[in-house]
Amino acid sequence: MKNATLHIEIHISIRALTMFFLKTWRASAFGVYGYLNFTRNGFLEHSKKFQPEDMQMRIEGKNCIVTGANSGIGFATAEGLASRGATVYLVCRNKERGEAALSKIQSSTGNQNVHLEICNLSSISEIKSFASRFSSKDVPVHVLVNNAGVLEQKRVTTSEGFELNFAVNVLGNFATTELMLPLLEKAAPDARVITISSGGMYTAPLTNDLQMSSDGNFDGLEQYARNKRVQVALTEKWADMYKNKGIGFYSMHPGWAETPGVAKSLPGFNKRSFICCPFPHYKCTAGFREISELVKRVQTQLYGWLYSLKRSWYLVVSTLIGLKHLNT
Ligand SMILES: NC(=O)c1ccc[n+]([C@@H]2O[C@H](COP(=O)([O-])OP(=O)(O)OC[C@H]3O[C@@H](n4cnc5c(N)ncnc54)[C@H](O)[C@@H]3O)[C@@H](O)[C@H]2O)c1
Questions:
Q1: 34 lines ligand 1 (CB under 6 A)
Q2: What CA dihedral angle connects 227, 230, 231 and 235, to 10 degrees?
């Protein structure tokens, strides 16, 4: 338009720009790192270091608690522990889903020492009553797996007034661990607390705005990342406090696993993650078995080469951009 003047006012604070840059950088670096380490390829590569004797270890007589055990990683963990002979307590929020998981695990492992405890881990009062019920059994707890977790995209407040992601991932985790400490102490020096955090924590720094309440714009993914970062920070504190008391504290990232939780909270990510594993699952019938095995071997070899190639490239890039800063 003739003589038209376009006035654009841009108000960008240096702080906002820096935050945006840092966020983008963290997300990209995490994406590259995750692609190499958290996909099926990464798992196959890392699993070469697993020791067969560790994988077959029997743990009869050990009492293990797994939270969020009716689904995904929690279910697999509980089933794995039960198959190695442990006494397992499944802590689940929903009675029907918990009972279904209980009977599946009992029948797949043949282990009848698997029990169900109902507790909504977003509620401190429910956690307290679970802990007091459980403590009356007076059994040592050898392993506590803090697995239950949630990624709620909208800001939901629990009946006790806490933001939901924070309530389950941080507060629930914290309260369960603290209230189980006397029973964990009974199992010392053989007690462990394992918290399932997430590599997603690399996308957010540690913050004291625990319930993401100060900025008005709630971002569920960011809140989840912050929560997972807090879990690791708490684990480090506990590890330090209990290092001479026979309780080991560990946090871990399970890799990118296809679970009901991921399908619900991150459906886009769930579909995209297949790009990292472009080869289809094998559902071979007897006639195709041999040829399929051959193809599988070739693919594994190719994966190995590609993996080494990607890894060298990643090492060069990460050295250049100082990726180790993701740890802060
Ligand atoms: N799947 C992945 O790729 C992935 C990656 C990194 C970390 N994780 C972590 O692994 C853990 C398990 O996740 P998943 O992928 O198996 O998801 P999932 O949704 O299949 O399992 C989560 C479990 O937590 C339980 N849970 C949620 N809120 C609860 C509450 N208020 N009270 C009691 N139980 C509750 C659910 O019922 C479910 O059993 C989570 O802590 C998650 O953050 C998963």
A1: no
A2: 180
Predicted model pTM: 0.82
| Candidate from 125, 177, 196, 227 with most ligand 1 atoms within 8 A of CB, to mutate | 196
235 pocket-lining for ligand 1 (C-beta < 6 Å): no
**What is the per-residue burial (b if ≥16 Cβ within 10 Å, else e) of 182-196?**
ebbeebeeebbbbbb
Mean pLDDT over 87-96 rounds to 98
Probe target for ligand 1 pocket from 70, 71, 126, with the most ligand atoms within 8 Å of CB = 71
ipTM rounded to 2 decimals: 0.99
pLDDT tens by residue, 248-306: 999 999 988 889 998 888 887 755 554 343 333 333 333 344 554 555 566 556 656 66
Phi, psi of 145 (to 5 degrees): -105, 105
Nearest atom in ligand 1 to 148's CA: 24
> What is the CATH architecture assignment of 49-269?
3-Layer(aba) Sandwich (3.40)
- State the first-to-last Cα distance of the chain, in angstroms, to the nearest integer: 51
Domain with CATH 3.40.50.720 in the chain: 49-269
- Secondary structure of residue 251 in the 3-state scheme: strand
Averaged confidence pLDDT in the chain = 83
The pLDDT, as a whole number, for residue 255 is 87
Three-state DSSP state, 219: coil
For 158, other C-beta atoms within 10 Å of its C-beta total 17
